[in-house]
Amino acid sequence: MHISILLNNRNSNYCLPLALTILAHCFLLNSYANALPLRQDDSNTYEFCNSSTVKSIKLHKQGWELADPIIELNSPDKVVLVFDDLAETPGNYSYSISHCDADWNPSSLFLNDYIEGFEVNEIRDYSYSTGTVNSYMHCKLELPNDDVKLKISGNYLIKVFDTYEPENIIFQRRFFVYEPLVDISASIKQPSGGIEHITSQQLNLKVQTKGIRVSDPHNEIKTVVCQNQLSQGCHTKIDPVHFSGNEINYSKPDGLIFDGGNEFRIFDTKNLRYNGHGVQTIDLIGGDFHVKLNTDNSRSRYRYSYYPDFNGKYVVNLERSTQSHIEADYAWVYFTLQPAMKLEKGKSVYLFGELTGWELSPQYKMDFNPQRNTYELRLLLKQGAYNYRYLVADAANAQVDVAHFEGNYYETENTYTILVYYKPLGSRFDRIVGFQKISSNK
Q: Is the pLDDT of residue 385 over 80?
């Protein structure tokens, strides 16, 4: 199935401490182990949602739902935040924005150092669903706007809360503002030896700093590389191999190696009158749509097979509609995974992708059904085209295994996002002075 089919009729402060995190920042079984927070309770991570009625949260660059939330400073670019409230009495929402350093700690800045405007603002752009079984309020926010102008580059957090209960944080998301001051040269190759030759991808990376003055690249420059998603699978501690003139070289024989993974699994619910890709049955029961997906099996022992995917993201889409944002309905989607055998005690299966907010939290942990020998989960999702995969988490040793059910293949199409942070001696904040995105599929 082609992406063009899935996209048919598409319409397009405060930094919280990182929560209790079992999955530490280290290279374990896979590159995802760097940044997957396994939420064991209601503690907050950098990105979270604390509401059972707020759904379909997406933050992206204006113009394309699949774009990363990265914009250029002092340009016409905007980031767009959208979400739905399915409560019988929808809430009133406000937001605040905060600036963070390269490691997502609060910057030592005053509000007026990074924002021109007000600290707290209301979200005034909202509309109600029409012709849907499940009613909802759709909210939209664009940044910058008349209330908020961004004055500097760097990492930003947007916090959305109840207007009348500002201590009640509903959800939080990250976005990025950059200045094009350095040149980034990057390419993907197949590692030269060992098992990684058939399972992994390696990045060659150089940064030309001609637009800024760098005296100490080890302390003034921080370069981050992320695979597919900006908050997961990132290499954050990359040491320069060589520095000469204006060039910083990060390439070395055993460095910047990522697991290849596999293409994400796909299902399509843009029309609830017939079974789309990956769908087994669709029923309307008790006033709700129920979509049962085809039973999934492990792909780790199969040969690699290419097909286009969204690298873990999803697109809201109602067939033959120009207003999918308010005309697309919600349905209960049932996921079923049939393993060769039940996992060992202490290991759990999680559904993962943008549809889970890139989180490994309890509501995305799959239950084992001993009668059917399957792992099962259901989620309430808006109509559209979705990517997902299954991860195995081992709480005992803090490991996440992406390859257990999905496999690892160097041929997999992955995108890599490169961000270059700059903090010269005496500066109070990290600027983003370079941004580049490349694909392993040339």
A: yes
Residue 42's pLDDT band, with cuts at 50, 70 and 90, is very low
Q: How confident is the model at residue 399 (pLDDT cuts 50, 70, 90)?
A: confident
The reply to whether the predicted model has a pTM over 0.85 is yes
Model pLDDT, residue 341: 87
What average pLDDT does this structure show over 166-179?
Answer: 96
CA distance 201 to 251: 13
Whether residue 136 is contained in a domain is answered as: yes
Q: Is residue 104 part of a domain?
A: yes
At 226-265, the pLDDT tens digits run: 999 887 779 998 999 999 989 999 999 999 999 999 999 9
Query: How many whole angstroms separate alpha carbon 28 and alpha carbon 396?
Result: 13
Q: Please check whether residue 130 lies inside any domain of the structure.
A: yes
Share of the chain above pLDDT 70, in %: 90
Mean pLDDT over all residues of the chain? 90
| Dihedral sign, Cα of residue 39, residue 43, residue 46, residue 47 | positive
As a whole number of angstroms, the distance between CA 440 and CA 233 comes to: 15
The stretch 408-417 carries a mean pLDDT of 97
Tally of domains within the chain: 1
In a domain, 116, yes or no: yes
| 3-state DSSP of the chain | CCHHHHCCCCCCCCCCCCCCCCCCCCCCCCHHHHCCCECCCCCCCCCEECCCCEEEEEEEECCCCCCCCEEECCCCCCEEEEEEECCCCCCCEEEEEEEECCCCCECCCCHHHHEEECCEEECCEEEECCCCCCCCEEEEEEECCCCEEECCCEEEEEEEEECCEEEEEEEEEEEEEECCCCEEEEEEECCCCCCHHHHEEEEEEEEECCCCCCCCHHHHEEEEEEECCCCCCEECCCCCCEEECCEEECCCCCCCEEECCCCCEEEECCCCCCCCCCEEEEEEECCEEEEEECCEECCCCCCCCCCCCCCCCEEECCCCCCCHHHHCCEEEEEEEEECCCCCCCCEEEEEECHHHCCCECHHHECEEECCCCEEEEEEEEECEEEEEEEEEEECCCCEEECHHHHCCCCCCCCEEEEEEEECCCCCCCCEEEEEEEEECCC
Q: What is the CATH number of the domain that holds 106?
A: 2.60.40.10
- Domain of residue 93: give its range: 3-178
- Digit-coded pLDDT (tens) for 120-138: 999 999 999 999 999 999 9
